[in-house]
Amino acid sequence: MILIWVSLPISAFSQQKAPDFTITTTGQEQFHLYTNIVAGKVVLLDFFFADCVPCQSLSPMVDELYRDYGSGSGRVRVIGISDRDDNLRLKTFDSTYNITYPSAGEEGGADTITALYQAEFSFLGWPTYAVVCSDTGIVWNIRPLTNGIPEIRKVIDSCLIVSGVKNQVTPSLAVFFHDGQVIIRSEKILEISAGDIYNMQGQHLLRSHPATGTEFFIPVPPRMEKEIIILIIQGPQINFRKKILIR
Predict the structure, then answer these.
(1) Is there a contact between 131 and 142 (Cβ–Cβ < 8 Å)?
(2) By percentage, how much of the chain surpasses pLDDT 90?
(3) Taking the complete model, does pTM exceed 0.70, yes or no?
(4) DSSP state of 242
(5) Which of 79, 99, 140, 188 has the smallest C-beta neighbourhood within 10 Å, fewest atoms?
(6) For the residues 173-186, what does the mean pLDDT come to?
(7) Residue 81 in 3-state DSSP?
(8) Residue 67: enclosing H or E segment and its boundaries?
């Protein structure tokens, strides 16, 4: 049986790497980007400043996101970076807008970090949001943003899927790539209710329609050749995840 897969529009995921940095927050915490990445964290960078009116509107939404993902105790961390505010001004900002995620200003080296990122990426203004995935790849300048910032949440969720995938072995299931397609073979009749393919940058590439059978074929578009993909298959009897080299 050939699974029918729907090609999804690809978000503007950057292939660039996030420059590493260490910054000191207003709470005197040393925040080292790559230490968090090595620990399996996904990091949201929030470039802002206290008198920025759009920042005042969006920062409470970022804080809600921060709390929804565990307030820094889970797999997502958020760091505010202000290139022009001192610690006192930032603490006042946090108090005024009920912000609980950490931030750093001039005293913590945020001006240097902002200049570093301005030199690497197209910087259109404030606020600027970027998500750093577990492979240090960065999704820069996530726009446009709507109420509740679901656009940022979607990028974070994609990064979490990629960084959290560990091959799950199912003895009755064989999955491999051959002759331009991923082949799935099962010893018994298998019902697939959902199938998704991601690349290692977190782009959601393909989605399947439901299917039932013992053998499934997934045609792989040429643009995906020589990539590692992540295949996720779910159904009443299966929750399968595997990284597959397309060659």
Answers:
(1) yes
(2) 49
(3) no
(4) E
(5) 188
(6) 82
(7) strand
(8) helix 53-68
